[in-house]
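Quick note —
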Amino acid sequence: MKFLFNFIYYTFVLGIIFIAMLLITTLVPVPGNFKVKVVKSGSMEPYIKTGGIVVIKPSTVYQKNDVITFGEDTKTQIPTTHRIVAVEGEGDSQVFTTKGDANDSEDSGKTSLSEVRGKVILTVPYLGFVLDFAKQPLGFGLLVGVPALVIIIEEIGKIIAEVKSIRRKKLLNETNQEQ
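Predicted structure written out below.
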């Protein structure tokens, strides 16, 4: 029974750490490194589900059929993730024609190399819903704050139990020494 409790407890702790790390990577991008983006539309379904996450990494080479993330990435504008269907030019003057897998037609404008944020290297369905929820004050409190508080309370309980055990042993030793 104790093994099962410990397994659940540590799985829970690892889950909290994982969600916190993903939340941090979506808020604090490191230039030239992996970035995590939440997918907001279904234009790439079934390959990438709405509410999923994509892990992107900047690359020096982009080819036809690569799935890329491009466009502005601000608080009011989100980048687009679509598949390259055609490549024109070479080097820094490359431009890409892109299309969402679920869309009937290609995107209206061409995407220049400078607009590309990175190539999709991993997708995880539905995790974006959790991350979006965790970005809200209520979600952060429920997904990170409450579990952290539970862990802190449990650790305080363990410390109190250990202090009581040490006091009992000390009292027992003093009683034995008096006899």
